[in-house]
């Protein structure tokens, strides 16, 4: 069984939420207390945010973390080999 999340789609979702909030990467990374280059890597799909970072991003974006997880859930895949 193979389990994975599509990092590109998760990053795109986070970028979309940031744009909707009218925030720059610099502003969001400052509020979420993460490095701007880390946020950039997440948004470009190079890295997936760990749970702690996801919570901080949601808080900074004023988004309910459960709502965000429900949106991310659609990018979760389980494949049986």
Global Rg:
13 Å
Question: Could you give a short account of the major beta sheet?
Answer: 2 strands, antiparallel
What integer is the average pLDDT? 93
SS field, number of helical segments: 5
Low-confidence stretches: none
Strand order of the largest sheet: 1-2
End-to-end distance, in Å?
5 Å
Instruction: Give the number of DSSP strands.
Output: 2
- Strand % is 5-15%
Q: What is the string of helix and strand elements?
A: EHHHHHE
Secondary-structure content class: mainly alpha
Residue share in helix: 55-70%
Structure, briefly:
It contains five helices and two strands, in the order E-H-H-H-H-H-E.
Overall description:
- It is a single chain.
- By secondary structure, the chain is mainly alpha-helical.
- The protein contains five helices and two strands.
- The longest helix is centred in the N-terminal third of the chain and has 14 residues, at 7-20.
- 60% of the residues lie in helices and 10% in strands.
- A two-stranded antiparallel sheet has the order 1-2.
- The N and C termini lie close together (5 Å).
- Helix 2 (25-32) crosses helix 3.
